[in-house]
Structures are given as C-alpha cells and as structure tokens.
Amino acid sequence: MFVDSYVVTAVALGVASRLSGETVSTRRLAGAATERWLAVLAVAMLVQIVIDTTGPLSGFGPLPDHPALLFLTAPVTWLVWGMLSLALPIAALSSERALVAVMLGITRAVTLSLRGPNLLRLCLVAFVTIVPFMLQEIALSLMRGHVARLIFWSSVPLDALTVGAIAALQTAFAIDFARRAADQRSA
Questions:
Q1: Considering only CA atoms, which of 160, 177, 11 is closest in space to residue 82?
Q2: C-alpha–C-alpha distance, residues 91 and 98, integer Å
Q3: Mean pLDDT of 26-52
Q4: How far is CA 32 from CA 7, 17, 42, 150, in A?
Q5: How many domains does the chain have?
Q6: pTM over 0.90
Q7: Angstrom distance (rounded) from CA 45 to CA 31
Q8: Exposed/middle/buried for residue 104 (C-beta within 10 Å: 0-12, 13-18, 19+)
Q9: Is the pLDDT of residue 176 over 80?
Q10: What does pLDDT average to over the chain?
C-alpha cells in the first residue's frame, strides 16, 4: 500500500501536468509526489477499509449464503469502489494540507461521481477498478494447489502491472469530473 500510494501520487501529478500542457522534470515530480504521498496513503487506507468491509457484497471471494443477492449488491459495491478510487488522485492533486486533502479527496470523489452526467463515466471507472480483483480471482482459482505462496503470486504481480495504468485513468476521469462540475456551475 505504501508503494502503491506513491505510484498513484506520482502518476496523478504527471497526468495532471500533461493535461495542463506543462512539462515537469522527473526530480520535481518525485519531490511533489513525496510531499503529497502521505495524504494519498491515508486515503488509500480508508478506501481499503471500505473494500475489506464491503468485499463479501462484491461477488469476489467466497459466495454468501444467498448468492442471488449478489446481483443487487455487487454492482452497487463496484460503483462505490470506483467512486472511492477517485479520491486517491483527487487527494494527490489537492493543494490543501494532508488531513484536509484526505477529507476533501473523499467528499469530492463522492460528490463529483454522483452528478448525473458523470454516472455513466463512473460505471467505466468502476469496471476498470475491479479488473485487478477479477484477475486475482481467476489467478487464485487457476493456481490453487499448484503454487506456494498463492496469495502473493495471485496479487502482487497483477498489482505491479496495473496500479500505474489504472491510476492514470482514474486521474483523467477525476479531472474530467471536476471540469464538468465547474462548467455546470459557470453555465
């Protein structure tokens, strides 16, 4: 989680600078990521608590006693996960102090995601956010009984391959959601 948070922070800052047309040196980007890393780590921990708490409702892992309920709970859970995943790049891009950035990152992610024009986009973000969970479930089922340290091998390589790309997409969507909200307020 510590490394992932730093990667998300660096990617978010890099994507934001690219979208603004600014060229930032690697040293400056690394310094800015180090400054914002703690806020993103705090958001990541809160989001992980939500994921761990709502995991049984997601359809990943062991099935509940009434599996048909997953047709209702899984899509809603995935949308919540997608919504909260936007809080990480929002916190990374915030100019506020770390504690304020944590709270504003979460509240802005929720309020921006629930705006009408963003709901379909939120579905796309949610799908991309759950892809690593789906791949991990597939890897777990294929490797069960054949590989030592199963949890490590089914999650860490996938995480290493996907965290940066997903962070870039989440950042682009978070910025788009914020721009759309600003356009609606000015109209």
A1: 177
A2: 8
A3: 94
A4: 12, 12, 17, 36
A5: 1
A6: no
A7: 22
A8: middle
A9: yes
A10: 90
Tell me the C-alpha to C-alpha distance, in Å, between residue 149 and each of 75, 118, 134, 155, 164. Answer: 30, 40, 19, 10, 24
Domain that holds residue 172: 2-186
Q: Contact at 8 Å (CB) between 12 and 29? A: no
Quickly tell me which residue has 């940066």 as its tokens. 164
In the chain, alpha helices (H): 2-19, 26-54, 70-85, 87-93, 98-113, 119-143, 150-186
CB 118 within 8 A of CB 175: no
- 45, 49, 52, 54 alpha-carbon torsion, rounded to 10°: -130
Q: Identify which of 168, 169, 162 has the alpha carbon closest to the alpha carbon of residue 136.
A: 162
Look up tokens 């949890």; give the residue: 151
Amino acid code (one letter) for 185:
R
**Residues in Cβ contact with 47 at an 8 Å cutoff, skipping those fewer than 6 apart:** 81, 84, 85, 87, 88
**Mean pLDDT of the 147-158 span:** 76
Q: Determine the straight-line distance between the first and last CA of the chain, rounded to whole angstroms.
A: 40
